[in-house]
Amino acid sequence: MFKRLAIAAWIIVFIGALSLIAGAIIIMYAESLSNGTLLAKISDILTKQWLGVKALGIDSMVPTTYKYFYVALPVAYITFAGILVILSIVEFVRIKRRQKISLPFVKIYMIFIIIFALIFGQLVVLPLAGCLFIALILLEIILHDVDALNNYSEERNLILIYREEKKFEKEVNKEGRRSWKIRFGSWDEKLEKPNSKYKKSYKKDQGKW
């Protein structure tokens, strides 16, 4: 049951992100078309502000700032939606590995997109905001799954253990190099000594190669 909820949540996010990408592409392409075309009319509907700050609406902008709506804002929409698509694919892989709880900060990013959508309030981004809201509810329900919590806790513990092992290995290597220099000196110093056996051995080995 909880696995199906996780899959459903990220399918909703994936579909919402694709819808935003499609809408943003239509808005950018419609800029070069005349007002009477079908895509231009669709673009006008998509860019209409239903919610949000009225000062950021297209009706309050002068013609010189239209480029902001038809280029910069759609590019931002595509960027945000593209990140959501990547996150959805990553989460699908995690679900396949029995990790139903999402990665850290993913929900914060989703909430950020919802706030961004409500501030600008254009119709093109509102469906994604609704999809993210539904997905967040489904992801919260998954937190009642004990197995999911245990798997997530085990995953984070393994990551922490791996980081500690890498840190310990780095410290051991650093201490080993320090002990070698104290006892034998650096390799470059030995090569600089005249008639050094290290230098002869080095040149001999170098000649073989």
How would you describe what is shown here?
The protein is mainly α and 209 residues long. The chain has two domains: 143 residues, no CATH class; 56 residues. Helices cover 76% and strands 0% of the residues. The longest helix is centred in the C-terminal third of the chain and has 39 residues. The chain is elongated. The chain starts with a helix and ends with a helix.
List the helices and strands and how they pair.
Blueprint: H1 2-30, H2 38-46, H3 66-96, H4 106-120, H5 126-142, H6 146-184, H7 187-192, H8 197-208
Protein name: Transmembrane protein
Transmembrane segments: 7-30, 68-89, 101-119, 125-143
Keywords: Membrane, Transmembrane, Transmembrane helix
